[in-house]
Amino acid sequence: MDELTARQKTYPVNVGGVMIGGGHDVVVQSMTDTDTADVAATVAQSKLLADAGSEIVRLTVNNSAAAKAVPEVSRRLADLGCNVPLVGDFHFIGHRLLRDFPELAATLAKFRINPGNVGRGVRHDENFATFIDIAKDLGKPVRIGVNAGSLDPDLMALKMDENSRISEPLDSEQVENQALVESALKSAEAALDIGLTPNQIIISCKVSRFPQMVSVYRELSERSDFPLHLGLTEAGMGQKGIVATTAALSTLLEQGIGDTIRASLTPEVGGDRSTEVRLCQDILQAIGLRRFRPAVTACPGCGRTTSTLFRELAQDIQAHIDEKLPEWQSRHKGSESLQVAVMGCVVNGPGESRAANIGISLPGAGEEPRAPVFVDGERVKLLAGPNIASEFIEMVENYVETTYGDR
């Protein structure tokens, strides 16, 4: 953590028992893509996301059927032993749904409002005030989530008009950045005037382009002490989405900016929705902010490693960890910090293996067909023969049992 910038000091916000901001760990959240009115499907996906490690799950609440379904979703999740906080994502008519369905409002751990689509002019102010009043009366936190794609048109028109009258006008993206930040901060000020406390407000300004996102959040962090929710509006599919999300979140988190994150990946048809959760965890773990699962270090291979044995062993070790992770998380507290090294030759193999909690340096091309195993920096055994993989996996299992015990 020494190499990371200290986290920006923000107000702590309690979201159904999960603390966001105030120096607490960066929180991973996700969002379902089911029709919320389909209770069974929404329950199944919410539990999938929670089981993957999502600490908050957001649901679309876009009509009366969805509003009626949320309390039943919550009850069924509780019956399954899943008490993940549920957040309602509201656009256009959130003020009406929260007013007309009090059980919905009472069930949700947090409300999300987009100030860009709650009406225009007087209607905007009235609808916004209704929404915030309900949150105030119930003691619920609110995320004021501004999006570039649904920015308040009146505010954007005003900023463009102001820009046209200055001697050196800004480009359109810079003007949009100003409007995004102003929309979020003015909405937060309005919420405070209505009666919310600083400990009930989280803000976000989402865009789809990495450089613009970084610029906007840097300004938000300089001008506000509210916790910040980070994420691209639409990261995209496959490798593009993963790279864009990793670049954007890592840049800001490394600077101490951000209190909760989501990876807005577009999943393949029939794909695993929980991929977005694991990506957030991997980002936080890679930059040293949190630990979620044991890490396997494996070399990429080169001309020295003509055998595929080290790759197969690395895959086997990773599969074993994935399989055992639920048990280890419940029985062996602290095992998430385990470091395993599976190396393929003598160049970096011994050094990386010594640096890990437990590591093996497999023989490369032309090397003696034996594999030294290192435990906490000391060479403890030489493995050879056809059972190297199974013997090393057994040693990893024993290390977890003896080091972390039953806790």
Structure characterization notes:
The chain has 407 residues and is of the alpha/beta class. The chain has 2 domains: 13-286, Dihydropteroate synthase-like (TIM Barrel, Alpha-Beta Barrel), CATH 3.20.20.20; 295-404, Sulfite Reductase Hemoprotein, domain 1 (2-Layer Sandwich), CATH 3.30.413.10. Helix content is 45%, strand content 17%. The protein has helices spanning 39-52, 64-79, 94-100, 102-107, 122-138, 153-164, 172-194, 210-223, 238-254, 275-286, 309-331, 349-355, 388-404; strands at residues 13-15, 18-20, 27-31, 56-60, 86-90, 110-113, 142-147, 201-206, 229-230, 236-237, 260-261, 265-266, 295-298, 339-343, 358-361, 371-375, 378-383. The strands form 4 sheets. An 8-stranded parallel beta sheet has the order 8-7-6-5-4-3-11-9. Strands 13-14-15-16-17 form a 5-stranded mixed beta sheet, with helices on both faces. Strands 1-2 form a two-stranded antiparallel sheet. Helix 11 (309-331) links the parallel strand 13 and strand 14 (339-343). Helix 6 crosses helix 7 (172-194). It is elongated and about 80 Å long.
